[in-house]
Amino acid sequence: MLAATFMLSAGIQAQQTAQMDFESVGRGWPLAADAAEHEVTGATFRGGFFQPGVPRTFLGGAMGGEVPEGIEPLARDLFTSDDFYADRDLWTDPRYFRCNSSAAIEDLWGANATGNQIMGPNPPATAPWGKCENDYPREAIVSPYPFRTAQEHYEALMAETKKRGGPTRHTYATVPGEWSGIYAHPGRTNQYWYKMRYNQIPTILSLLTEEYQTYYVQEAYHHGNTNAPQWQSQYCWPEGFTRRFHEFAVWEHYITVTPNMVQIVAGVARNFITDIHIGREFNMEGVVPRLGADVPRWYGETIGFWDGDALITWTSNIQGWKNHAAPEHSSMMQTIEIYTPNHDSDGNFTGLNHETVFYDPQVWVEPVRIVRNLQKQNEFDDPDATPYVFIECIQSIFPIDGRATPVSHGQVIEYEIPDMYGRPWAHYWEEYFEQDMEKPEEEDIFSFE
Asked: In angstroms, rounded to a whole number, what is the distance separating the alpha carbons of residues 341 and 28?
């Protein structure tokens, strides 16, 4: 599996929040920093395979076992350690990760089509350094809003909307039909912190609970040190809710709007379907708010309401899972997502501002926010519009001795069925690569007791 180091396009724009004509209690607040103005943090290559015509250039602090000028390396770091658990006191120092972002560490062994060239002559000890002076500020990641739960946030936005005469009850005659259509791959047209390419790892760790700090560093270690990634797409596992926000996990978005349902379909290795139930209310009697049975869903359940031509949504009942190079999420996670139309200087509809606030007290010590924009590129009936291709994932890669291994037709292997609700990726790491490590005791993150 290949993943580009990062995507550059003429369509990339500065980050912007929603275009609004009033000051809201919980949407459209300005960003503390624009990711489009930040350089990538970790070591990588620019140009070549993913950018034809762009000269192949190393971006980072140093490679080949060298150390950036003015930096005193640690005696022990992620790439030389035999037990990352024992190094917990070092995790707050960017030098422990050689100033690499988590996405850069994921790519180092060749996921960015560089082969092992970037790892130096004696990997992992000769892993490259990122740029220690680069980082995306913590204050631009955390939510600026005063709410501690998704319910508080949703109810505040509902109360605000009622004061404005809403919520709007659209009919087929009034629903914003210009929304329906095909939107450009957001990874090509946006820069945002959740790509995990602009962040020093300690900055992200400062936002995580102790348990999820451990999980985050565990994945970085097995990306950068043991070269044993466990990616859900490799095995045709469920993608999980937060993969919707990964730069390569979903491509074009197909949005259909009706008065009582808005559906967003996207995908790459799996299909992502978000059904927004307009005017519905959650059943509040379960472990978390829900619409259906008291069973977590891989992509959650979503309700919403209209404030004029803006759509405000609340998602709950999400199955805990993981994402590429980003912190895992728990089954307690809920989100508030707001879709607001964007217009050009002539008032023409150009797409949607998509603002998301994540509430997950098991993971984040503060709620965090992602702001990006979905640029409309086609109507469904455009002659050159490509219909959505429904995806079937056929497994041909299996975890053998803890490593993702291609298996050919007719080959017979011994395969342990994973526990899909018990961090199966971590099971392989702990079984095959952490036998001699001093792993701290922990609770089952999927237990609700």
From this structure: 12
